[in-house]
Amino acid sequence: MGEKILSDKVALVTGGSRGIGAASARRLAALGADVVITYVAQAAKAKTVVEELRSLGVRAEGIQADQADRAQVTAMVDAVAQRFGGIDILVNSAGVFRPGELTDAGRDEQVAINLTGVADTTYRAVRHMREGGRIVNLSSSLASKTFAAGMSDYAATKAAVTAYTRGWAQDFAARGINVNVIECGIIDTDMAMSKDSEGGQFMLQAVIPMHRYAEADEVAGVVAFLAGPDAAYITGSTVRVDGGALA
User: Fold this and answer.
1) Quick one: CATH architecture of 10-241?
2) Does the keyword Protease feature in the UniProt annotation (predicted)?
3) Which of 154, 164, 213, 233 is catalytic?
């Protein structure tokens, strides 16, 4: 982690005020990248993350933007490009999980944020992305297998992100932009089901061979790899960080 292999890069991390987004922002900053994180309601947490990033000697900002609002997404991406001169790395981490909520409202919210919002952010970021850029999408193991009832809408949005990744890898290849996706298992964040719940115990005992949830930093390490020079010939790929749940 001592080598600043991203010292000339600008990274945009959506949903960077907590969880995988915050962990990824810290990893990228530790490697020398200037980092912009987005947030919706977590202003205090975003401020704390930005201060942590700046303490690593990089430029960092937090921008409030609702990923479900196309106008806000457009303004946010344009602001990043204007203030930092372009974008090299995009980490699509923002998302919402509404398990068991098979309602029109729940579905609309998850589609707006997890799918349409990811597409809107990506298409706008690519306009400002320099050659050799990296896009890392965060998806879920539920894109490949649903383990319980009530997750259909969320799983569908994440499966679409995985499909987008393969398509974008071809769409943006001529510009030297790599696009990959991480399908995460259960991450030990505030979005995860309780380990003590019936569902949590089922996942830990019967589904995940490693019998534990992942730490956000374990996913962030993969994000940093895919954003770096060692992943130059990797594009359109799915990396699973799920403790062997889909093995």
Assistant:
1) 3-Layer(aba) Sandwich (3.40)
2) no
3) 154
